[in-house]
Amino acid sequence: MRTIAFLLAFTLLPLYAADPTPGEPSAATSTLSPALVERLGTETPPVRPLGPSTRLWKASLAALALATAADLATSLGKRELNPTLRSANGRFGARGVAIKSLVTGSSLAGQWFLVRRSPQAASYAAVANFGMAGVFTAAALHNSGNQAAPRLSCYPGEMRLSLTALVLLSALLPAQTTRTVTDAEVARVHQSALLIDTHNDVTSETVKGLDITKSRPSGHTDLARLRKGNVGAVFFAAYVAAGFTRTNQSAHRALEMIDTIRHDIVERHPADFALATTAAEIERARGAGKIAALIGIEGGHAIEDSPRLLRQFFHLGVRYMTLTHSNTNTWAGSSGDEAGKTKGLTPLGRDIVREMNRLGMIVDISHVSDQTFYDVLATSTAPPFASHSSCRALSNIPRNMTDDMIRALAKKGGVIQINFGCEFISQRSADTSPWTGKAPRGSKMIPATLAEVVAHIDHVKQIAGIDALGIGSDYDGVECTPTALEDNSRFPNLTRALLERGYTAAEIHKIYGGNLLRLMRQVESVAAKTEKAAGR
Known about the structure:
The protein is an alpha/beta fold. Helices cover 51% and strands 9% of the residues. It has helices spanning 2-18, 34-40, 53-77, 83-117, 122-143, 156-172, 183-192, 203-206, 223-228, 250-267, 279-287, 307-315, 347-359, 370-379, 403-411, 422-425, 427-431, 450-464, 491-501, 505-533, and strands at 195-200, 231-239, 273-275, 291-298, 318-322, 362-364, 385-389, 415-418, 469-471. Helix 3 (53-77) packs antiparallel against helix 4 and helix 7 packs across helix 19 (491-501).
């Protein structure tokens, strides 16, 4: 009976921990209109009843710690209560306690390493811990004189068997972090996703005359590649280089960049692109088989310190503004220059953030200094986002976000949109890149990999949750992109990698667009409530 009980525990716990409950609506698809869901053929993916598997793992650690402590206490401190154990201890008791402690400690160290690399391993680690907690609890009960308890600690063979089970389960954990995925599954999940890329710089070429519908051998973006990658919406960057501040032409350049999105991309190709300014308009464009084109100003100096210009840009369709670029402006510090790294928002900067909230424009904290980031969180009543940033813990460059920043952003309802630039993704790339200034003269930069992109997604999911994730590729704005993610056509490779890693279709849909649609709706809601409160 004891053997059957343990087998049932090891069989049912992973099902309860890892398997979702069928028939419940998905948070990932709840942001989509019913008509769009029907058109895309999006399934209603199940949801997990327990939340993140790491919670279960942490609970199992506590259970195992208590059971181990009880086993040690009864083995070493209360032997007089159990004559059978007292006689057995002469042969193997002390050695058994030492072995159990050593194996348990090694297993927990291995679990910590594996769970940090892949949160999906947490469910399987929890199974091992709960199972061994049961073994040690039974041992403690028997040691303390409970004759009805299983005599697990009194027989070397049974103790070795229980320890072997723990070692084997721990050894199996790495195998659970990947799974086999078919081409059909990849196609189904990818085609049903509404993929929204929040930062694309192809506008720096279209403003010079590039026709986005013509295939080209260079760069990362054209219509054919967008279609092949099933990209459903793009925030095209109205990028204003810092040099325009020296000739007082920042606003002039912003107008040119807005025009290339509205005219060169949308008006010239109405069968393929539709201008969108709201979450609902993104969905309508998708329903019509078009790519939604949105506008984001990159560089807050574009407004030339004038909230009046900010309002005019909003009326032209701008729906986010990156508060700084690599240059600190008069009202916000940038991560891109030494002077700005210690500066935050000025009173004017706080007024600009509040006006963006009132209008319904997303506050973008990519490029800003850490102090500016925290000032934005303290000022904004709507969730901000990072339109194209990654994790500083994995690639230590100022443009990436620290773990504390990512957690704080998620707590505010914000989203970090992962940047695909090699230096953002790989420390090896950052250390060998001329852009960072770390590379020796004449050295060749080591490119990032698809696996490293997934590592950033894993990291954010682990520390801040799945709702904090999105995609902001920075295609055509970076020199180097990861292998297997070289351009827009390669997005299905990311879908495959995430599925192999254990991500569900619901989670992938959130990362690709669901989280961004939710954020946009929150920003729109804050603007509507602000206007209503003002009686407008």
